Amino acid sequence: MRRPPTFLALVLVGLLTACGGGEDAAPRTTPENGVRLGFSQVGAESAWRLANTQSIEHAATNAGVRLDLRVADGKQENQTAAIRDFISQKVDIIAFSPVVESGWDKVLQEAKDADIPVIVTDRMVDTTDTSLFTTMLGSDFTAEGRKAGEWLVEHYRDFNGAVRIAEIAGTTGSAPANQRRAGFADAIKDDPDLQVIVSRDGGFTRAGGEQVMAGFLQQHPDIDVVFAHNDDEGLGAVKAIEAVGKRPGQDIKIITVDASRDGLTALAEGRLNYVIECNPLLGPQLMELVGKVTTGQTIPRRVVVDETAFDREAAKAVLPNRQY
Ligand code: GYE
């Protein structure tokens, strides 16, 4: 099991950042009052996102990084404007979690022209020129989708007949929606009984999940399984299923991604069936990368977060210490 970073670890990251402690290159910048980091966040759509924002804020404080945080309300144009503002303010480094994958080349080129390094966190960008960002820190969403599909294949191994799957997808065009869908589809493709009969965008929110699921149930009262791209959508689906007098987790199986406290609680209660972990606590790793990039050290192009998956018993075991 991954452990949360200790206070000591956070202090060490802070010291490293402050001392610039690298063997390699000369410092790129030598800010007197700490590195200035401009961070553009997606929004506040889910428990995952709130935990992610908090983790970044805490880690910045602990590392002595001066954070300018902008929250984009799920709109790409707000993120583009925030990045332009960071450039005009000449921050030392920019990080952002792109709401959708494509459409970033121009603004990233502007950051590059201004000689401001950019770290992509959480969600990947689809750029034609990979020199436009220094590294990508985040989860492997394809692997998460695959874990969901593999559980389903295993769960219905001895079942004969069609299994009707409804997918409540994440934000259209976002990396987690695209890649979770792809990983899931890949994992179930050799089992013709497992059929995705309907898929719709639930916006990664509870209200979105509830609304989409209510619509699905009207059109397809015979759904067997829901694959929701995050816990919030899955918890919204639970409400919609209960509203038509069915039992979530029993009459309709539900798989979700994130493993937030609310998600794991519903899993422990038997209203969700399987939950894939997606870790939002990226703050300490991000500050470590910020420290390294701003002191000219070499960093890997891709940093993947360690993650697991939970069934009911595993959820009960970790819940008392769950941080998000
Ligand atoms: O799964 C969802 C959030 O990008 C990994 O965005 C993130 C996703 C996460 O809204 O809950």
From TrEMBL:
Keyword Signal: yes
Pfam families registered for this protein in UniProt: Peripla_BP_4 (PF13407)
Keywords, ordered alphabetically: Signal
Signal peptide residues on this chain, from the entry's feature table: 1-25
Compartments in which it is found: Cell envelope
Keyword Signal: yes
Domain annotation Periplasmic binding protein: ranges: 39-294
InterPro entries the UniProt entry points to: Peripla_BP_I (IPR028082), SBP_2_dom (IPR025997)
Family the entry assigns: Belongs to the bacterial solute-binding protein 2 family.
Name of the protein described by the UniProt record: ABC transporter substrate-binding protein
